[in-house]
Amino acid sequence: MNSTRKYLLVIAGLFGALGLSAQSPSPVTRLIVRGDDMGFTQSANEATLLAITKGIQTTVEIMPNTPWFAQAVTMLKAHPKVDVGIHLTLTSEWEQLKWRPLTQAPSLVDENGYFYPFIWPNKDYPNQHLQDKPWKLDEIEKEFTAQIEAVRKHLPWASHLSAHMGCTGMHEDIKQLALRLAKKYGLEVSLDQVVPVTYRGSKKTSQEKTRSFMAMLQTLEPGKTYLFVDHPAFDTPEMKAIRHIGYENVAEDRQGVADTWMHPDVIRLINEAGIRLISYRDLKTR
């Protein structure tokens, strides 16, 4: 018997004596919990920070064009271990809350200088979507670059890009531009093997949202990596003033997200199921 085989038999015997298996460990279920739109309200900033420090959120997407960006930066600077994504933005969807490009971009804005409300046609807001406007790719490139650099200036550990309201999917040229910028700034993350998941069941109230989220958790399979995306905020007067047609219950809805992500039953289920919470940054180092 050669020495290698002897060694393997000895190791196997040790595992047996200890009541252990020499087989590889069971595959782990991994889950990214991503909270979008940090910076757009103070309420969103506060809920996001709590959902990260006290709850299950693992990644935050920040919008540098928005009114509460400076506060969001201050909060995140105090928590440099938080995974940050740069939420590329070309729309300003709320009726009573607006933001503009960081650059001179006349092809991307309405007559008031704000981003259009939507990317794609919306029957409730006719002729207020960017897709059918004479947008210019060079202006989008300058704007995306400015947004990236605005975040990186303050939060240099930002790990990735994401797209507000799916703006990078508006055209193949914009998608390729975003990929080039991600490579240029070291913000590439491969999501090819990541499975998007959503609620399973009604989510009208906070309680229903929590139950639906927990039902979703129970469907996750070992060995796979999942991504769940939503928008935490608190039900405050600030949030109650924000709406657009078709989404009038913003404050209540986003309070439900915050409640769910910090709910003790959700945290308990994740622990009992052995689900490993990871961030986008973890995908870069695997």
Account of the 3D structure:
- The longest helix has 18 residues, at 137-154.
- Helix 2 (42-53) links the parallel strand 1 (29-38) and strand 2.
- With 286 residues, the chain is an alpha/beta fold.
- Helix content is 39%, strand content 13%.
- Strands 1, 2, 3, 4, 5, 6 and 7 form a 7-stranded parallel sheet that branches.
- It contains 10 helices and 7 strands.
Rounded to an integer, what's the Rg over CA atoms? 22 Å
Order of helices and strands: HEHEHEHEHEHEHHHEH
Low-confidence stretches: 1-22
CATH superfamily: Glycoside hydrolase/deacetylase
Number of helices: 10
What name is given to the CATH topology?
TIM Barrel
Measured between the Cα atoms of the first and last residue, the distance is 38 Å
What proportion of the residues is helical, as a percent range? Answer: 25-40%
Please give the number of β-strands. 7
InterPro entries: Glyco_hydro/deAcase_b/a-brl, YdjC-like
Cofactor: Mg(2+)
Protein name: ChbG/HpnK family deacetylase
Pfam families: YdjC
